[in-house]
Amino acid sequence: MPITVDVDPAFSGFNQSIIQKIINSVFEEEGYLADDVAIVFGDDSLLNKLKKDFFNLDQLTDVIAFRLNDYEDKSIEGEIYISIPRAKENAIEFSEPFAKEIGRLIIHGGLHLLNYDDQTAADKAIMTGKEDEYLQQCQWRKIIDE
C-alpha cells in the first residue's frame, strides 16, 4: 500500500482506510499519486522533537509534513505527522468535531506535501479554502471508529 497509517498505541479508534481515502482524494484531485506516504498520529513530544530537530523551534504544533522527493515529481513520497493532543485542543478552540479537525490536519499535511505553503495570509487563505473544499467531499465523520 502506498499510504501507511501509524497510530501511537496510546490513542486508538482511527479508521485507517478512511484516512487513506482522504489523502488519496486530495492527491488525485490535485493531479498527483501517492507513491510512499506515511501518516503518523502521535503525541506532542513527537511533534515537538521534530520541530526542534528540523526547524530549530521549541514549540508545539498540530501537523508537520516532509516531502521526501522532488516537488515536481507527480508521485508523492512523504510523511505527515499529526499531534492528537493538538487536534483535540483545536477542535475545542474552533468548536468543531474532533474527527473533522483530524480530517483538516490530514488534508493540510497533504497540501504541504504538494508544496502549498501557509506562511503568508494569502497563502494561508488558499490552503484554508482547499481544506474546506476537501472536507466537504470526504468522509471525515468516519475517521474515528465508534
Describe the structure.
- The protein is α/β, with parallel strands linked by helices and 146 residues long.
- The chain has a single domain, classed as 3-Layer(aba) Sandwich (Collagenase (Catalytic Domain)), CATH 3.40.390.30.
- It has a 4-stranded mixed beta sheet with strand order 1-2-4-3, sandwiched between helices.
- The longest helix has 17 residues.
- The radius of gyration is 14 Å and the shape is globular.
- It starts with a strand and ends in a 9-residue tail after the last helix.
Q: Assign the CATH superfamily.
A: Metalloproteases ("zincins"), catalytic domain
Q: How many domain regions? A: 1
Strand order of the largest sheet: 1-2-4-3
Give the overall form: globular
Q: Helical residue percent? A: 40-55%
Through-space gap between termini: 25 Å
CATH fold-type name: Collagenase (Catalytic Domain)
Label the structural class: alpha/beta
Mind describing the biggest β-sheet? 4 strands, mixed
Q: Provide the residue-averaged pLDDT.
A: 95
Which CATH class is shown? Alpha Beta
Number of helices: 5
Secondary-structure element order, N to C: EHEHEEHHH
Tell me the number of strands. 4
Low-confidence stretches: none
Shape-level CATH architecture: 3-Layer(aba) Sandwich
Radius of gyration: 14 Å
| Percentage beta strand | 15-25%
